[in-house]
Amino acid sequence: MACKKETVPFSGTPEQEAALKKVIAELKDTKGALMPIMQQAQDIYGYLPIEVQTMISDETGIPLEKIYGVSTFYSQFALQPKGKYQISVCLGTACYVKGSGAIFSKLEELLGITNGECTPDGRFSLDSCRCVGACGLAPVMMINDEVYGRLTPDDIPGILAKYN
Ligand code: FES
Fold it and tell me: Own/partner pairs for 52-60, CB < 8 Å, 24+ apart?
């Protein structure tokens, strides 16, 4: 099974596991229960790592391959936790033609992670997004609620240095 590398160790608590088991016990005999179970599991853990998917598989009898397939097909499911600082680079058309691809590559290079991943210290996560409605500032990235525009790759180290 092709599985994305895990950059953050899983650290679920017994309380989270008990909450997940309760959800599964309530839903597992309902038709079409997998999606709601996965959604609630993500609410409990904040994301859906393979460890949580394995618990769902063990409790429901649904093959892990199927759960993994669903988790990678729907963008609402995150296989990695989000960082304390969530970086999102706009790859919408206006930003892309102004070079947001190079901004994204620079972030990958500096952080050592790629799309959908989180740094091992939990500080930064990196995602791409569609147009955020700030095309006049293209290329644009967001870090949490902060918008950065008219970026060049050389701006990125200085911006990251502000987030410690
Ligand atoms: S395309 Fe990036 S803000 Fe619109």
Answer: 52/10, 52/12, 52/20, 55/17, 55/20, 55/21, 56/20, 56/24, 59/20, 59/21, 59/24, 59/25, 59/28, 60/24, 60/28, 60/33, 60/34
Mean pLDDT, all residues of the chain: 92
- Which tokens in the block code for residue 99? 């070079």
Class of domain 85-161 as given by CATH: alpha beta
CB 78 within 8 A of CB 115: no
Q: Does pTM surpass 0.85?
A: no
Ligand 1: centre distance to CA 142 (Å)? 11
pLDDT tens by residue, 1-12: 334 455 678 889
Among 128, 129, 137, 140, the mutation site with the greatest number of ligand 1 atoms within 8 A of its Cβ is: 140
